[in-house]
Amino acid sequence: MSQLALPLAWPAEPRDAVFLVTPSNAAAVRMLEEWREWPVGTALLVGPPRSGRSTLGRLFVARTGGVVIDDAPAEPEESLFHAWNAAQDRQRPLLLIADAAPPAWPVALPDLRTRLAASPLATIAPPDDSLARALLAHHVERRGLPAPAELVDWLAARTERSHAAIERIVDALDRVSLERRRRLTIPLARSLLIEAGLIDAGATPGFLEDA
Questions:
Q1: What phi-psi label fits residue 3: left (phi over 0), alpha (psi between -120 and 50 degrees) or beta?
Q2: Whole-structure pTM value
């Protein structure tokens, strides 16, 4: 599959929901875009917490008129079984969202297990470098943080490649910006994030440290 331009919103509506597309999640987006080609009426969307999977589910509903069951493993298996059958009968797509697909998601009901095995799978991977930077820039801009562009670059080079870690870092910077009422700088961010255990002091060398 060809590389996608970075970043993209999929799709533009609804306005309050943006899902940034990079190679780490492009295959999942492409599969949801091609829902009419699914071999059955249900698909699984799996990915780590805070990965935007619920946002992608809402966008899927807005685009297709389908149904989404978020945190599907928490639902009764009989209910999922009937929902799978209903999607097939009514030709209205169903998207089940979970942390992981079976067998990592243990399913006891044999008939449901068989149906899930036949369902296409869309996987959101951990952020790649492009998405990590795009997410940091997006969260910083959305919160109106007084952060220079070079700080975003600095953070992107040092942030753990997980959606949750990126949000924790922006949360911490947001708090210190509000508490101290000062513009964020690389030295201030470095001190704060090391103290909070969000970055490793031994992994932050570079000419920007004293900027």
A1: beta
A2: 0.73
